[in-house]
Amino acid sequence: MASSPTFISIDSLHKQFGHFTALNQLSLDIKAGELVCLLGPSGCGKTTLLRCLAGLEHSDAGKITMAGRDITRLPPQQRDYGILFQSYALFPNLTVSQNIAYGLSPKKRLNTAVQRRVAEMLDLVGLTGSDQKYPAQLSGGQQQRVALARALAPSPSLLLLDEPMSALDAQVRERLRHELRLLQRKLAITTLMVTHDQEEAMVMADRIAVMHQGQLIQYGTPQELYRQPANAFVAGFIGEANWLPYTKQHAQQAQVEQISLAVKQTLVESQGQLFIRPENIRVFERAPDIATENLLLAHITDSVFLGRHYRLHLRPDGMNGLNLTALISAELGDRLTHAHAAPRCHIQLPAEALYAHA
């Protein structure tokens, strides 16, 4: 995507609802053919941003361009997009074919060209043979596919998705995420998706825009956001994180309660917080034979079996009651949690996995 041109450019968009600021001078560029997820808690402005793109809301200030064309004040029908709502918004009195054809021929005239396009869309979303069924005869996942086919039927250059899988059960949602991502790549259609589900964003997006209180907090690939979060909000919202308040000893040494920890990052602030992902904490049944940096003894206060993994809740010695969470293999977890005595283990907080935030 790095070489793709910018397709959507959002510049200093501002939207106020009374005293509530939904969008606060937000700027964002989306490249041609990429899938971008707007991710954030409820009320952060992500749906307002999508509605401004769709022309269903108008911003108070700022500019939106699409393929170099200013669409800020254009009506929805002049913006060349398809949209899939959370509710799917299928017409219950129309068949699958009629629902898909509606965007092509609102007057329900199913001429040969329209019929051919409907058949192509049904094949694309894997619903060939369901053309004469009504929405009530379909499962939630099938209804979502019909709504997607309807959105794609006019061959829009932009696809807008408003939490399209939130109404589905977990198993169906996981399968459709994969199918939708494959379809988006096959069509190379520029896509903007709203979600509050960080796993969904991580699985599907080329880039994620993390929003909070109407502002863009960080924009990057899932790997960038997970490994190099801009601040504590992003680190806590994208995945799990352990937080350790520290005092700087020197450039690459931090004091956490009674424990001195080496870090790779150069510490700038005199105080702040270190964070480490649960999977980056190394857990040992017994102390390693060789000298190991940042090695601690910890009590296992609780464990949760997750199939392939265990989630361990740990209380390291010398940290005055601070708690850590670690993810370990099922095999190691079995051995540790089946110990007869109060389970203890050695843990290492690798210097390269500790990140500081003020």
Topology:
Elements: E1 6-17, E2 20-31, E3 35-39, H1 46-54, E4 61-66, E5 69-70, E6 81-84, H2 96-101, H3 112-124, H4 140-152, E7 158-162, H5 170-187, E8 190-195, H6 198-204, E9 207-212, E10 215-220, H7 222-227, H8 232-237, E11 242-250, E12 253-256, E13 259-262, E14 271-276, E15 282-284, E16 295-305, E17 309-316, E18 324-329, H9 330-337, E19 344-348, E20 355-357
Parallel strand pairs: 3-8, 3-9, 6-7, 7-8
Antiparallel strand pairs: 1-2, 1-4, 4-5, 9-10, 11-12, 11-14, 12-13, 14-20, 15-19, 16-17, 16-19, 17-18
Helix pairs in contact: 3-4
Domain ABC transporter: 8-238
Protein name: 2-aminoethylphosphonate ABC transporter ATP-binding protein
Keywords: ATP-binding, Cell inner membrane, Cell membrane, Membrane, Nucleotide-binding, Translocase, Transport
Low-confidence stretches: none
Give the termini distance in whole angstroms: 32 Å
Mean pLDDT: 91
The major sheet is characterized as: 6 strands, mixed
User: What shape does the CA trace take?
Assistant: elongated
CATH class of the largest domain: Alpha Beta
The DSSP helix count reads: 9
Protein name: 2-aminoethylphosphonate ABC transporter ATP-binding protein
Keywords: ATP-binding, Cell inner membrane, Cell membrane, Membrane, Nucleotide-binding, Translocase, Transport
GO molecular function: ATP binding
Pfam families: ABC_tran, TOBE_2
